[in-house]
Every structure is written in structure tokens, then in C-alpha cells.
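Researcher: Re-running this chain for the archive, since the previous output was lost when a drive failed. Same request as before.
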Amino acid sequence: MRGIITIFVLLFYITLLFIPPVNADYSYQDEKDPFIAGLLSAGMMGLGQFYTKEYTKGSLFVLADLVQKGSLILLIINFNDKYTNDEEGDSIVKWDEIHLSDKILILSYLAFYFGTQIYCVVDAMKSAENYNKLLHNKLISNLNFDLKQSSNNTQFSLNFRSKF
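Model: Regenerated C-alpha cells:
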């Protein structure tokens, strides 16, 4: 009977390892949601990294986003000057009328844009997961479990270090 009680108490203390105390430094409100991080990065590259407190990476992605938007403006200005017919007033240009070098430029821009956008969203989601792992590891490192046995009794102790 004593062995069953000992096992029950041991299992109870082990389950306490995964439940953070109320006054702990760690709270579930501090966790970063990977979906929100990805959604922010889909809106503007780098915002998901700022959300997960990776400011250097976020700044680089914001810079890349600004460079891409500037490149798009230059492409639009260049193609507007190149393919505008002043005589007819027709501003619609068919894909077949565009030169091969310009088609390659457009397609490479789109591939680079969507590639970096997808990479940024995936990176923001992974950054949120890494942030949560570090937060959880901080909680676990503050826990201390001790088991002492002597000839007539068994002592269990669970300690949690927290700042007040």
C-alpha cells in the first residue's frame, strides 16, 4: 500500500512540472501565436519577426519589403513609358506584345516577391515556435524536483524559483 501511495505522489509531482504556477515569470499570455506571427508577416514582411521579438531579422525583412516595393514602382514607371501609345490612347498591353526580356523581368520579380513573402511567413511562424520553446525552457529551468529516501521514510520536494 505504501508503494502505491509513493507512486501516486510521485506522479502528482511530475504533473506539476507541466503546470506553471500563477505567480510565475511565465504565463501563457507571454506565448506568441505562430498563426498571428505568420498573419502579420503576410501583411507586411518583418512584422511577425517584430511580434516574436526578433528585431534584427524583422528589420531586414522590412528593408527587403521596402526594396521590393521600390522595385515595383520602378518597373511600373519603366513599363508605362515603354508601352504607352500616345497616338491611339489605348493603355491595355497584351502579354504577347511585351518583349521577351521584359517578360523575364516581370516573372523574375514575381518569383522573388512571392518567394521572399512565403519565406518570411514561414520564418515568422518558426520564430514564434522557438520563442515559445525558450519561454517553456525558462519555466522548466526554474523547477527543481528532489527525492530523498531514508530507511524509514521517503521525502519529495518540488521547488520553483520566481521573482516577486
